Protein: 3-methyl-2-oxobutanoate hydroxymethyltransferase
Amino acid sequence: SERITVPGFASLKGSGQKITMVTAYDYPFAQLVDAAGVEAVLVGDSMSMVVQGHDNTLPVTLDEMIYHAEMVGRAVNHALVIVDMPFPSYHLGKHKAIENAGRILKETRCQAVKLEGGADQADTIHALVSAGIPVMAHCGLRPQSVHQLGGYRVQRDAAALLHDSRAATEAGAFSLVLECIPTEIARQITEKISIPTIGIGAGPGCDGQVLVLHDVLGLTSGRVPKFVKEYADLRTTITDAVRNYRDDVRGGEFPAKEHGFE
Ligand code: KIV
Ligand code: NA
Structure:
């Protein structure tokens, strides 16, 4: 099927078809999620936690995001591929934001960037969009601000959330992630703005949903957030497979005759 473009993605709002987005950080997983038929693949800075093992999203660098976005860009032929701008790559002025987002589009085969912010990032969103760089905004819980927020908490200020969502829309964002906000607030924002809302912990009233792939697959160690649904238990599958391999090696059952050369 045809490649999903930024305007094609945006036009799904109001089409009656819900949008599915999931993260991927490397070639094999990106191939699999693209084959499953999602509309968008996000190279999220959640990579800092689920791939690199840090306890928040602050450490991952722009070079590391680009390195992984290249792998995902090579794998995906159908879905729209969006790359998170890491902290603080869009907080250093408009010129630097364009330079950094420009590197993502030049050096990977990805089509858009995402950044955390609403009204406070309107000027930056506008500058990027003016440079021809499609921007997905991200409001509600903003994990890059974890120290300021004092933890990962549900964001409940309805007026501020609507103000941020409108500001991102007016600045030219083509879509908006809403993270960890009450279901009813997300439903109202979705009704009031013209761009698709993609929820995570924001209830069913959004135009689409996003989850971290490692959470979907049951690969995440420790506790997963309340808003996650695990669709597989790959930790068990993988550990069992490797344990069976180890047992076969120890027991002399692997390699067998058919695995060798005469
Ligand atoms: O980094 C990420 O994976 C994200 C999604 C959870 C929206 O920003
Ligand atoms: Na992110």
Notes: Residues 44-46, 57, 84 surround sodium ion (ligand 2) (CB under 6 Å). The mean pLDDT is 98. The longest helix spans residues 234-251.
